[in-house]
Amino acid sequence: MVIKKIFNNNAILAKDTNRHEFVVMGCGIAFKKNVGDKVDESLIEKTFILKHKDASEKFKLLLEDVPTEHVSLCYDIIEYAKNILGVELNDYIYVTLTDHISYAIKMFDENIKNSNVLIWEIKKFYQKEFAIGVKALEFIESELGKRLPEDEAGNIALHLINAQVNNSTSKVEDIAHQTKMVQDILNIVKYTYNITLDENSLNYERFVTHLRFFFQRLNKKQIIESEDDFLLKQVKSKYKKAYECMLKIEKYLEMTLSEEEQLYLTIHIQRVTQR
């Protein structure tokens, strides 16, 4: 493995005998080294293998502007997130999260607050990702001695949600918008029935999960269709109030849902509103 480019004393772009490129980090790995020199592999601490070419190129550009310790810190956060979530994350997470956290640290240093208006919803709907965000704040404090506000745990969570492979075509802004829409729909249900929903119930969890995947289907234009409206007619007759509530949600969404989507949504509303 030889050095192809030096970013700083602790970060280089290296290539192996098969001409594969890797971003490699390690304390003093490029000290007194030149392009073309052999890499001292005993000094390697972190290796970034980004399969997506565009993500790889943007990551290299990022390394020229972002402090090495921020890049290293985000690597640890991402590896921790992978282990906890047990899912594959899109390569872009190394670019987007590193860029965001580095900027958040800069904002913190300048005493500029960056509020997250969706913090409450993120805590509730994406508990696992938010918990990782909180842990990330601990990583940052441990490494840099800076305790970023809880709002940043929510921002980190949004990046993790976005980076999960099923959401790889979405943007962080889309995920934030979807989270707000889930809350709006829950409010429609609460106000229609004039009740407080049991957020600890299994039916509540199923309803929120259904809504999250429903918005994913909307994004990917994968709306469920059905040629048989018999079940919907039965449900419409049996659960009139739930069906009326579903129509309010449909109006809020400003779209006509397929009969199958109407059916599932009505059933979930019926279940979540029952004691």
UniProtKB/TrEMBL annotation:
Superkingdom of source: Bacteria
Segments traversing the membrane: none
SMART domains per the UniProt record, alphabetical: CAT_RBD
One Pfam family in the UniProt entry: CAT_RBD
InterPro entries listed in its UniProt record: BglG_antiterminators, CAT_RNA-bd_dom, CAT_RNA-bd_dom_sf, PRD, PRD_sf
Keywords annotated in UniProt: Repeat
Gene3D superfamilies cross-referenced by the UniProt entry: CAT RNA-binding domain (2.30.24.10), PRD domain (1.10.1790.10)
Domain PRD: 65-170, 173-275
Name of the protein: PRD domain-containing protein
Gene source species: Clostridium cibarium
